[in-house]
Amino acid sequence: MQNNYNKHIISLKAAILSAAFFVFQTMAFGQMTLSLGNIVSCNNNEVNISLQVSEFNEVNAITLKIQIDTLFCNYKGLTNPNSKLAGGNLIANTSYTDSFALINISWQSMSPITISNDKLFDIVLNYKEGSSSLSFTGGCEIASGLTPVENINYLNGSINKQPQSLFIAEGETAIFSVNYDNESTYLWQFNSGERWIDLSNSPTYSGVFSHELVISNTTLDLSNNTYRCIVNHIECEIISSPATLKVSPMSINEHNNQPGILNVFPNPNHGILHCEVNSPLEHIDISIVDMLGNKLWVRNYKDLPANYSETINTGFLKQGVYILQLISDEIVQSTVKVIIK
Question: What domains appear along the chain, each with residue ranges and CATH number?
Answer without folding.
Answer: 33-157 (2.60.40.680), 166-248 (2.60.40.10), 262-340 (2.60.40.10)
